[in-house]
Write a structure and sequence with these properties.
Layout (H helix, E strand, L loop, with lengths): L1 H13 L4 H11 L4 E3 L12 E6 L3 E6 L8 E7 L4 E12 L3 E9 L12 E11 L2 E8 L33 E4 L5 H10 L6 E10 L4 E3 L5 E4 L2 H16 L6 E7 L16 H12 L4 H7 L4 E5 L2 E2 L21 E5 L9 H14 L3 E5 L11 H4 L6 E6 L1 E3 L6 E4 H16 E7 L2 E6 L2
Parallel strand pairs: 1-2, 4-13, 4-14, 14-18, 15-19, 16-17
Antiparallel strand pairs: 2-3, 3-13, 5-6, 6-9, 7-8, 7-10, 11-12, 12-20, 16-18, 19-20, 21-22
Helix pairs in contact: 1-9, 4-9, 7-9
This protein binds cobalt (II) ion (CO).
Cobalt (II) ion binds next to helix 4.
């Protein structure tokens, strides 16, 4: 089973070079779920399964229990990963001998992990249609470009703390001088549209290196975009395989976490609150029912965590350090960059114990600020009891990250158990947990 889950994850990663493709991969797996449009009225049924996308880069899927309207049990993760966006005028010519792509950074990546490896291009095109504009996805899906290092003989500082300049060092080489004008033509050809009809685009680079399983015992997997598609994949698998719950189970995968979530489709938008309100109203309930459902609702904010590094164990907290293949990570931060508190931890811990899934506790070393994630941002719009979880991984924001193979199954089981547990808030701070499987 664990092996199957890892292969499933690697296939999902391969199909998801960008946030747009991740949403398409998720939707293609939502068999038996009815697509909803935000621009139409919803008529939901008890026992129904639905999904809705925004910008085709964020998606919310949910299941309505047979008993109808109920509190919400949510898992949130993100579709995007640090990468390079290709600018609108894509081609740069160097001494008439080279054509490079003009790119800028999306999110905070480890720059040198993008060098000297085959890259490709994928994203979304907006093309002229008979009556306006239509959007479609494109993926060159071939070795298309490389960002070459400067030889050590020409840069003796490369191993002693060289500072990469994104405007100078990170331009991918696309073709020789004869390839001028070929980039848009190649994109149009791959998308099956006329070059002149492409009037807008959101194109990104991605690492072409396929994911792999490795280690003496096959205990590790490496691939691009594990942060956060590993959690997205696990939450999707959990939603698909969970027995019918007592509450409304919701799987949200948001775009733009890596750039602060502040877009119309990000966690800092109305997307989630709009969907929850519309579920409430469409099931014949009102704003007062919605307000009463929120304190009875519960959210897991799922985003990967930093495993203790083999070369630098001292960078982790001396006690609250986590390891790959040792279970789901519960993340803590005194300043509430992570939303976990003692009560939300306890609720989740009890569910994991019931599911026989190990958990471990993570906090940053006290002199390191660490990153932020979805939970506290989403909480500004939909304030439900939340905790931050993830899986331990190495090299976060590298173009090729590493995680533990056992953990994929641990996370899917923990998330499935979460969806199958009826979490009821009796009074502020007291919970009753009914395990339904
Ligand atoms: Co992340």
């Amino acid at each position: 089973m664990a092996h199957e889950q890892v292969q499933g994850l690697l296939q999902f990663l391969k199909e998801s070079p960008t946030a747009f493709h991740a949403v398409e991969s998720i939707c293609s797996r939502l068999t038996g779920f009815e697509p909803l449009q935000e621009n139409a009225r919803w008529r939901l049924q008890t026992g129904g399964r639905y999904y809705v996308t925004r910008n085709r880069s964020s998606v919310i899927a949910f299941t309505v229990p047979q008993r109808g309207f109920a509190p919400f049990q949510l898992i949130a993760s993100h579709t995007d990963s640090p990468t390079f966006r290709i600018k609108e005028n894509a081609e740069l010519t160097v001494r008439d001998k080279y054509v490079q792509l003009d790119v800028e950074r999306y999110g905070g990546m480890i720059l040198n992990t993008w060098l000297d490896r085959p890259l490709s291009v994928a994203g979304r095109l907006a093309v002229r249609s008979q009556d306006g504009v239509r959007s479609l996805l494109v993926n060159l899906d071939e070795d298309s470009a490389v960002i070459p290092n400067v030889a050590i003989h020409m840069n003796r500082e490369i191993n002693t703390g060289y500072k990469y300049n994104p405007a100078a060092d990170m331009m991918p080489l696309w073709s020789g001088g004869d390839g001028k004008g070929s980039f848009r033509a190649r994109i149009a050809q791959a998308a099956g549209v006329a070059e002149g009809d492409i009037i807008g685009s959101d194109l990104y680079l991605y690492n072409r290196m396929p994911g792999c399983v490795w280690g003496g015992e096959g205990e590790y997997l490496s691939a691009g975009r594990l942060d956060d598609l590993e959690c997205a994949y696990a939450s999707l698998q959990a939603l698909l395989t969970a027995a019918d719950g007592a509450h409304i189970n919701i799987c949200c995968v948001f775009d733009n976490e890596e750039v602060g979530s502040g877009t119309k489709q990000g966690a800092d938008s109305t997307f989630l609150s709009d969907v929850l309100r519309r579920i409430t109203l469409s099931l014949g309930h009102d704003e007062a029912d919605y307000m009463a459902a929120l304190p009875r609702s519960f959210m897991l904010s799922a985003d990967n965590a930093h495993a203790t590094h083999p070369n630098h164990p001292e960078l982790s907290d001396p006690v609250n350090q986590v390891y790959m293949n040792e279970g789901v990570v519960i993340k803590f931060n005194a300043n509430q960059k992570y939303t976990t508190d003692g009560v939300s931890e306890a609720v989740f811990h009890a569910i994991c114990q019931h599911a026989d899934v190990p958990v471990q506790h993570f906090a940053n070393r006290s002199d390191m600020p660490g990153g932020s994630t979805l939970g506290n941002i989403s909480g500004g719009h939909v304030s439900v009891n939340t905790l931050d979880i993830g899986l331990a991984q190495l090299a976060m924001h590298s173009s090729y990250e590493t995680a533990g193979t056992k953990d994929v199954d641990y996370m899917i089981r923990a998330m499935r158990a979460f969806y199958e547990t009826e979490i009821d808030c009796l009074r502020d701070g007291d919970y009753q947990l009914t395990f339904r499987a």
